Every structure is written in structure tokens, then in C-alpha cells.
Amino acid sequence: MLLAPRALRAPTVPVIVAAAAFVGYAVWSLLLHHVWLATGYDLGIFEQAVRSYAHGHWPVADLKGPDFPLLGDHFHPVLAVLAPLYRLWPSPDTLLLSQAALLAVSAIPVTRCAIERLGGGPGAAFGTGYAFSSGLLNAVTFDFHEICFAVPLLAFSVERLLRREWRAAVVFAAPLVLVKEDLPLTLAALGIYLVWQGQRRLGWVVCVCGLACTAVLTGLVLPALNPDGHYAFAGRMGTPALTDGLGPKLMTLLLTFGPTAFAGVRSRVSILLVPTLAWRLLSSYPNYWGPGYHYNAVLMPIVFLAALGSSAERLRRPATVCAVLTSVVVCGALLPGAPPPATERAALAAALASIPDGATVAAGSQVAPHLTSRCRVLFFPEQPDASTSPEWIVTTRPLIAWPIPVAAQERRLRELRQERYVAVIDTEKVLVLHRR
């Protein structure tokens, strides 16, 4: 059943839920960063892009490769809107707080609809369950990503769909084309939903525009901007058997639909889930299959609002209970491992303090986001190579076996020390080399 436009009850409750979510997200993400649990992949990469925008340059991420144009990786020009904030506060904290705010704002339309359908108390509980769902908390836990812009856009757009405010729904969804190249497919799915609702002309226009944008971005724009001349993720769009990675895929579906007791499955709004689930579950890349990282975040506002718009009214209150209980379990499950001890964190901070502002550094992933606001940062162990000779190399110990084995990294460090670098700091926890 669709939501009819009418005066909202308890209008402050959705704002309170969003404010609580913002505080939780902000404290959580800042804490992870400041205890050295954030990484260069991807917080450092996105900070480099935003820093480039803030200084009036093309978005470059040296952690992806020297002078790598990040718009050749994914199409996310929406990041430019963070540039003014970054000029005021040039820090990775700016990105983390912006993400916290964007994700939290998405709780307003979800909670608002829930209060209309379920009443004040149950609606607030449902909105809280959404705010602390696994998809959103995983996104907060795993650094920063451009999809934080998509989540509120989808939440407000689907809310308008449920209120039969068709043009407003399209207006909210249209900026998805600036967030990531796969999201125009979600816009196309929205067009199909509009056709089902009798909005044929508007629906077909939206559907065709969404499909055309995806084709142009992946077929022309991204290959033109990528240094290798092709869409970087085309190779991951294989066709494995559906049973490959069956366990992670089922867990993704469970954590997508389970928090609402599968109430939204019968809603036609769920068609907006199909593009994202399809490219992930049909991909040949195993990391897309499971519920980790940030990939489920864009699904959460759709599935929660679909549950509210479902014709199966008897499922709505069980969905509220399920959403709250699931959020509690998820919060416990996502607690990270113990951070480095305070003495180790102090040693890491002291090691980085020995590197001057403006230096070129090849840094390990754990230390990279602590340098990207003031240095040019390349990624160790991929750098240095034959074409680069950074002034400094810094990495934590023990070495992480990614993207190459530890033995190969140790061998490379020995070669660098023999050829052109001298150890400035060499302990069990951190290594700092300076070029001779």
C-alpha cells in the first residue's frame, strides 16, 4: 500500500533519530581513524581526490598510482562538493564527518514514513533499526566511499515514490549519475517502477536515460579517463555459476532483507534493488558477493522503505522488532579488534612527525591516511618502482600480505636499503627509510 500525503506526526522524531545516528557514525569513524584502524585504501585515496578538487585540480590519487586520475577509476564527480569544506579543514576527518552526516540524513525520510505507518514509538524504533543496520554500519566502519551521497538521495526518492510524488522522486534520484557509474541502472529501475504505476511517459524517459548514462559512462567516459584506456572494472563482470560463493551470497540476501522480516519483498519498490544485487551476485569478483565493506549501504533505504510500502500489513510490526534486534546484533558483530596499544600509536605518530610537510612518501596502508593531508603519498609496497623515487618510505610492522606476499616486500626493502635508502627509524612496529 502506498503512503498518502498528509501531515506528519511527531515531526521532530525523525530529526532526533538522524541526530543520534550522526553522533554514532561520527564517533565511530573518527575513533577508528585516530586509533590507526583506517586505511589508505580507501580513506587516503578519497582524501587525495578531495584535496585535489579543493586546490582547483583534476582529482588525482597517487595511492592508486603516480598521478592517477581517479575519475578514470570510478565516475564520482559528486566528491567535488566536499572541496569547500576541505579547504576550511584539510583533514581526513572532514570526509568522515561528511559521510556521517549524509548517511544520518537518510534516516529522516525512513523514520518519517515509519511513523506514518506504524505510529510514533514503533516508527522511531523502525527508523533506529534502519540507522544502525548492517549496510550502513559497514560503510561507516570501512573508511569513506562515494556511495554516502547515494544513500540519502535514494531514501528521499523512494519516500516520494511511496507518496506518489513522481516528479519529486525523479529529482532526488537524478543526481545518482554523478555518484557512481552503476547507479544510473538504479535510476532505470525507478523508471520501470513509474511505468508500473501508470506514469508511462515519465517512466520510459527515466529508464532510457538511466540505461544511456550507464552505457556512456562505462563505454566512453571512463575508458577515456583511465590511463589504460578501458573501464577498470570490466574484468570483474564475469558470469560465474550462481552457486559460486553461495554462502556469502546468501548472507548478503539475509542481511539485506532479514532486518525487515522480508516484508518488502512483495513491494514493487524492491525492483530498485535488482541492479545492485545483480552486478554483485553475478560478478566474478568474490569481494562483491558478501555483506562486508560498503556495498550494502545503497540497498538499505530501499529495502526498509519497501517494507513500509508493502501490502502485507501484518508483517510491518514484526519487521520493526526484527529491525531493532538485528541492529543490536550488528553493532556487536562489527566491533573491531583491539587497536594498537597507546605506546605503539605514540611511536607511529612520532615516526610520521619525522617526515616534513610536502614530502613525497611511499606509505603502507595503515599510515597513509595520516599523511595524505600534508604530503604526496604513494602506496608501499607498489612504490617505489623504476619510475618513482620518493624521498621517504614508511610502513608498519609486521608487514601486511597485501597486495604482494610479505617475503617479496621484505626482499624489496632489503634491496632499497642497499641501493638508495637509509633507515631513520627501524623498530619491531615501524620502519622509516629516507633516500640518500
TrEMBL record:
<protein>
    <recommendedName>
        <fullName>DUF2079 domain-containing protein</fullName>
    </recommendedName>
</protein>
<keyword id="KW-0812">Transmembrane</keyword>
<feature type="transmembrane region" description="Helical">
    <location>
        <begin position="202"/>
        <end position="225"/>
    </location>
</feature>
<feature type="transmembrane region" description="Helical">
    <location>
        <begin position="319"/>
        <end position="338"/>
    </location>
</feature>
<feature type="transmembrane region" description="Helical">
    <location>
        <begin position="12"/>
        <end position="31"/>
    </location>
</feature>
<dbReference type="Pfam" id="PF09852">
    <property type="entry name" value="DUF2079"/>
</dbReference>
<dbReference type="InterPro" id="IPR018650">
    <property type="entry name" value="STSV1_Orf64"/>
</dbReference>
<keyword id="KW-0472">Membrane</keyword>
<feature type="transmembrane region" description="Helical">
    <location>
        <begin position="293"/>
        <end position="312"/>
    </location>
</feature>
<keyword id="KW-1133">Transmembrane helix</keyword>
